[in-house]
Amino acid sequence: MWRVARAILLSVVLVSTAACGAGAGGEPGGLRIGAIPDQDPQQLQRMYGVVSDYLHDRLGVQVEYVPVRDYAAAVAQFERGDLDLVFFGGLTGVQARKRVPGAAPVAQRDVDAQFRSVFVANPAAGVEPFTEVGDLARLKGHSFTFGSDTSTSGRLMPQYFLDRAGVSLDDFTGEPGYSGSHDATLKLVESGAYQVGVLSASVWEKRVQEGKVDPTTVREVFRTPTYHDYHWLARPDLDQRLGQGFTDLARDALLSCDGSDDREKQVLDLFAAGGFVAAAAEDYAQIEAVAGQLGLLR
Hints:
Radius of gyration: 20 Å
CATH class of the largest domain: Alpha Beta
Largest sheet: 6 strands, mixed
């Protein structure tokens, strides 16, 4: 019955969209998706090309992936209305909701409810693996790089756990770096440009699985406790642009992506997930609190 109801609702949305013929401001109708640039641009282009095709097939509208320059640009373009649906990190999602009242989380990957950061080190740094947050104090006196300065898993939560261990940014050798992405962090530590760095556990595990990590040049030394992170965030005017009920249809398209066919398996593999699950604003209360403490809610 739900498939019949969905088909009826989709028909109504498409008729409504066709009747309007254009989105807000006279622009052509279509779903514009985006993401924070947390990985290599070629990897992101591949990921969101596949998800664009998937959403086009499921929703019956043109879907365009719009790459952005950096994390701040993703938030700014969402605020301006240049992006309708964005795969944000926890912090950038909170920032975007602050700027766009009514914006709603619609889905997160199953892994995002129990997300972690991974601290990695160049073996030459002499940092041995450890399991307790307090042992992050061992990183004092080493050169260190975060990812983007507004990355949840590459800066916000790592800095929170460093603070819990009594480690301030002044305890590192030189100024901490901000690489801009998880892949860039990995390369900087591999090369020895920085002795230690931190990145998304999801990206780390994916690169290990792909055989792109050389254990003689970089290794995992600590994995943080869990927290909520990435999620899809929809603008509040999405239904106005693309038809009443479109936000619910987009949510349903994501939540029903369970790997039951080759296209869905490809989407989930690229997102390093077993599926998408429901997300709510309250899931990111911890992220918002930590961001407020660190002065990152701008």
